[in-house]
Every structure is written in C-alpha cells, then in structure tokens.
Amino acid sequence: MDLNSIYTQLIMEHNRSGHNKKELDNPDLIERGHNPSCGDDITLELKLDGNKIADASFTGQGCAISQASTSIMIDLIKGLEIEDALDLVETFIGMIKKEITDENELEKLEDAIAFQNISNMPARVKCAVLAWHTLKEALNKNSN
Predict the structure, then answer these.
(1) DSSP secondary structure string, 1-39?
(2) Which ranges carry the NIF system FeS cluster assembly NifU N-terminal domain (predicted)?
C-alpha cells in the first residue's frame, strides 16, 4: 500500500467519523467559513480556557476534503495554546503552498500531513485550507 492510499484512507475515515461534528454548549468563539466555489460551508465553534483552546467542534457540510481537514485540525488544536494553534495554521498553509517542505517542521501537523499533495490539485486547495483560515480568523478576532 503506498503512502497516497494510506492518506486517502485517513481522509475518508475522518470524513466519515464525525467525532468532531457537533455543536458545543456555550462556545466562546463561532466563526463561519464558506467556500462558494464548491459549496463547502462550515461553522467552527471554540471553547477557550484563558489562552488555551479547551474544546472545538464544527457543523456544516462540504466535500470529503474540507470535512476531513476540519476534523483533523480540531483533533490537533484541542488543548493547545492559541499561539501554538496559530503556528499550526501557518505551517499547514505553508505546506499547502509548498513554502514549507522540511519534514521536521511538518511533523507537528501529524495527520494533517495527509493533505500535502493537495497542492497538486489547485481546485481542492481551497477545500483543504478552509477550516484553517476560519480558525485563524476566529482566533485573530478574539485577540483584538
């Protein structure tokens, strides 16, 4: 089994699982991310504990890539300091733009590395980065 099919499997599993797809009770931050070109529409909900992301979830619909990317991102950011979460966003977007290729740097993305080759499919890039841009929006609004 090659790496690409393992990654494809991972994306499909996250798309199916839905363990991060729910509404939170009294979220501190709610941010909608919408990609009109392919109909991805997600709403990210975050619960903060001081400077930490205590919990996160999402609702909405979209293609397998946007749904899986959102779910994997949520797994990664739960329990992180806001600053570390924003750092992951930059790393993920850097990976997609092929600006960050250093394996050691990318390791912190864990399962999100599955989206590394999406940069070869320009039409799908927006799907993969939607949640990450939405998270950045929400956290930046919060810090102002």
Answers:
(1) --HHHHHHHHHHHHHHH-TTBSPPSS-SEEEEEEETTTT
(2) 7-126
Q: How many residues does the chain have?
A: 144
Angle between the 82-96 and 64-77 helix axes, to the nearest 10 degrees?
A: 140
Beta strands in the chain (DSSP E): 29-35, 40-49, 52-61
pTM of the model: 0.94
Q: Which residues pair with 86 in a beta bridge?
A: none
3-class DSSP state of 77:
helix
Which residues, 6+ apart, have CB-to-CB distance to 71 below 8 Å?
14, 15, 17, 18, 19, 20, 21, 58
Q: How many CB atoms lie within 10 A of CB 7?
A: 17
CATH of the domain at 13: 3.90.1010.10
Q: What is the pLDDT at residue 136?
A: 98
* Total domains present in the chain: 1
In Å, the largest CA–CA distance within the chain is 47
Residue 49 structural domain = 3-143
Indicate if the pLDDT at residue 142 is higher than 80.
Answer: yes
